Predict the 3D structure of the following.
Amino acid sequence: MTLHVLREARDDRPPIVLLHGFPLDHRMWAATAAELVGSHEVLAADVPGAAGPDAGRGEPSLDTAADRLAAALADRGVDRAVVVGLSMGGYVALALAERHPALVAALGLVDTKSTADTEEARAHRLRVADEAERTGTVEPVRAMATSLVGESTRAAQPEVSDQLAQWIEEQTPAGVAWAQRAMAARPDRTDVLAAFTGPVTVVVGDEDTVTPVAAAEHMVAASPAAQLVVVPHSGHMSAVEQPAAVAAALSDLAQRAGSA
C-alpha cells in the first residue's frame, strides 16, 4: 500500500493517517490536510482499489487493505497513529481497529457507517463491479461526482463536482470493481467501535444522503468516547466540500489523542 506524505513530522507525536473514499484516491484529502492544526506528520494512503500500478490487484477485502496499511506503517516505524477514514476509508479504519488495535491511537470516522450493507446495497455494488469490468470503463460510477456532494455544494461550489469527476475519470475499472466487492463483503463492525477505548470523532455532512446523520448518531451511541461533529452545507464528501470544518474536527481529535 502506498503512503503519501502530505505534511512532514514536526515532532514525535503519532501521525495522522487519512484513508480516502470511493471512487477516489488520496488526493481528496489535500485541502483538509492543509488546514490541520498541530505538529503531527500527515500521511494519506491509497487502498488497493485506488488508481495506481496495484489498482484492483488481489482478493477484494477491506481486511487485506487494513493489513497492508499496518505493514506500510510498520515499514515507516509507525506503531501508533490517529486513523481517519471517509466513507470506504472509514470501513478500512474500523477493520484496522479490529485487526491491529494497538496501532490505533484515535479514530476519525467521516461520512461513513459501522454497519454492513443491506442485501439490496450489496447486490448493487456487485452489479457496478461487474459492469465496470464488462465495459472496461468507470462509466458505472461517473454520476457519483454529483451525487456524493450536497445540494448546497452543487449550487454554490460546482467546481467541487468538476474536481471529483476528474479524479473518478483517473481511476481504473479493475480498481472500481475491487473496491465495490470489498465493501460488499464487509461485516458489521459496530462491536469493534464499541470496544475501542481511545478518542473517537464522528463527522458527517448535514446533507449526506449516502451515510446520513442517523448513521453517524448510531456510531456515537455505540462508542464510549465519541464526539459528533455535523458539518453544515455538506454532503457525503465533507472533506472536499468543507475542508476547514473537517480539519478543525480532526485537529481536535489529534489533540485529544495526545492527551489521552
Observations:
- The CA atoms of residues 29 and 239 lie 7 Å apart.
- DSSP finds twelve helices and seven strands in the chain.
- The mean pLDDT is 94.
- The two ends are 29 Å apart (CA to CA).
